[in-house]
Design goal:
alpha/beta; DNA Cyclobutane Dipyrimidine Photolyase, subunit A, domain 3; Rossmann fold; 3 domains; five-stranded parallel β-sheet; 5 strands; globular
Amino acid sequence: MRLEAFLPCAGVGYAKNRNYDRGASRHSDVSTLSPWIRHRLITEEETVAAVLNRHRYASAEKFIQEVCWRTYWKGWLELRPSIWQQYRAQMRQQVDALEHDPGMRSRWEESTKGNTGIACFDAWAKELAETGYLHNHARMWFASIWIFTLGLPWTLGADFFLRHLLDGDPASNTLSWRWVAGLQTRGKTYLARTDNIAKYTDGRFPPTHGLARTAPPLAEPPLPRPLPPPAPAPPNTSLPTGLLVTEEDLGPACLLGQCAQIESVAMIRTTANRSPLPLSPNVTEFVAGGLADAAVRVADLSPSPLGPLIDEPEEVVTWAKECGLHQVVYAYVPIGPTREIIDRIGEGMAEAAIPFLPVLRAWDRWFWPHATRGFFPFKARIPEGLRALGLQSC
């Protein structure tokens, strides 16, 4: 198991070496667990618990903080959904602009294919396309070069990542690109520097010339104030219930215990909604594999019959009616492409008078309300959160 293999490295070794990008298939200094955590094939809680069974918190603090970064980003965006809506609108506008601006389309194509002549950037573009993964430091350098050296819209870069990353998470991806561009922390941008790239790639690229020397922050209106955190009511445990599994949370065990009468389990595939542009086959195949894995776990954990694999939102209402369900539950879906589909399903379920109820995991319920400001105040609450969730923190 990948987590078990990484555990010995999750302590001080991770803190010391995590910033080094050794190259494709050589990312041994980091866990590379993010695709599985992103889809909750393994949860943040399970990951942190395993690490704390092997290391003291002080030794593994940096790794645990990195796990919690994704939770922070999800919570931050959940409290400010208009930022996602703004990104989606701008991205679609830029995709349309590619048809009418030959210069930008040429730069975009060269960049996504790894044909810019910037050796490190081109290598990362090709690694991403081939493997579906990039080291986090490389993602920051890539985004900085994309925005400040190549002069491309950040939204198209975020879309390129979301279409190719196996761990492409709407919140982490969108807000990280915004951070590089100077939109997330106002006035603070990230500038890719030749010496930094050379140091943390072990000098495996030829000297990088022509990178932007400055990174003036992009501008937009002030950030919205955070909304109240979600606090959905628990479902009625006595009603005939359907469970809808989404690709955002492929760990069905916690939901199967929420209701006594799970009559049927269905799964919905929403991967195509990530972008109006084609997705990498790596992404679609990984999600398909995750859905298949979740189906096996449902069969092992529950006698409830496994229903259809659904592609169209309207089919959820049909399934619920045909099975005579009095309510349908699903793991709470955070802001992003799948949430857009879930909201459409909710409208149809409301018309059919079938309650459609999210179940919020205890991890998210505790941490998300603390994502109101920057990461540093959030980080200070991590030990408290781990104790509240019954995890060792010493």
